[in-house]
Amino acid sequence: MPKTKFQNVVFTLMMSFLMVYAMICYNISMNIGGMTNQVFLIAFHEMIIMWPAAFILEFFLVDHLAHKLAFCMVTPQDRPIVITLAISIMIIAIMCPIMSFIATLLFKNAGKEFVAVWLQTTFLNFPVAFFWQLMYCGPFIRFLFRKLFPEK
């Protein structure tokens, strides 16, 4: 969708913000035993670290790798929705373990159980990240992006 480097920066900032915020809210609610209104505010404390981390990873590393992996399964001649889904799935598959690793390192106090806690965090985060991205976040951000940058 983004056609220029500037548009790619804007798109990645928007997408990473909404994905990270939702995933932080989910993880905090899991840690405290349920969702409360307070979680929406508490999440902003972790956003200071996690949003820039997600943006940098996505923009400089994951996006390129995800495209490369996606085009092992699809071709440029496939329907645009198929290409979009393939790229999104590859981004989720790469970002979820990495972001879960960072969150485990910074917020979980896992100690000697680090690998086990990281794997558990990844497995708990993956289905939520998958469905949130494909069903809500991705379509919503693409809709907003098209409003911000209408094609001529």
Characteristics of this structure?
mainly alpha; globular; single chain; 4 helices; 152 residues; 0% strand
The gist of it:
With 152 residues, this protein is mostly helical.
Describe this structure in words.
- The protein is mainly alpha-helical and 152 residues long.
- It has one domain.
- The protein contains four helices and no strands.
- The chain has helices at residues 5-32, 37-70, 80-107, 114-148.
- Helix 1 (5-32) crosses helix 4 (114-148) and helix 3 (80-107) crosses helix 4.
- The longest helix is centred in the last third of the chain and has 35 residues, at 114-148.
- The relative contact order is 0.15.
- The model has no long low-confidence stretch (mean pLDDT 97).
